[in-house]
Amino acid sequence: MSDTTTAAADAKPTAARAALGPITGVLLAGGQGSRMGGVDKGLVPLAGKPMAAHVLARLAPQVDAVIINANQNAAAYAAFGYPVFGDDLAGYAGPLAGLHAALTRAPHALVATAPCDSPFLPTDLVARLAAALQAAGAELAVAKTFDQPHPVFCLCRRELAGHLGDFLAAGGRKIDRWYASLKVVEVAFDDEEAAFRNINTRDELAAAADELPGADG
Length: 217
Prior knowledge:
Shape: globular
Helix content: 25-40%
Largest sheet: 8 strands, mixed
Radius of gyration: 16 Å
CATH topology: Spore Coat Polysaccharide Biosynthesis Protein SpsA, Chain A
Number of strands: 10
């Protein structure tokens, strides 16, 4: 990523989170689940409830409002009690399409995202992203563990909606390429590396179930 900085380890997450004002959280559930046989991963049962419910249980307390991006099974996602919307672009255009749709609908100036297949996401994700965003004066903060960025775990300024819309209209789909056009701060979560693993296979689903509350045994 160009114009990218790394967050200082001594950032003050709680103070920065308060100073930045309200944040909208977005559950990204707009994919096709192709790596799990085409099922809607957010609705796959995990430890007694849909996988997305575990993500929402961790994300919702960190933000001031929640909205859900889903391109199928809208009624099932609406049952979680939050507004649901699809991509504005047809054809499952990827996470940037979901982010763009979220930026045009979010009630707050900052938008935090998390994918529906990440039931272990950090409970301090938004606070740490907010601290780094403020300290760096960045347009977008993205989580990173060691050398691995996690681009769908980000905190983004809503004012980027037009810029992202232009990128998508020009045929852009790669999230890293769009990030490279912004002032980005990468936020180290080396202490929580396992929290960013997502669930792509039935074996991973079974392993995750053993680690979550509600699992049998």
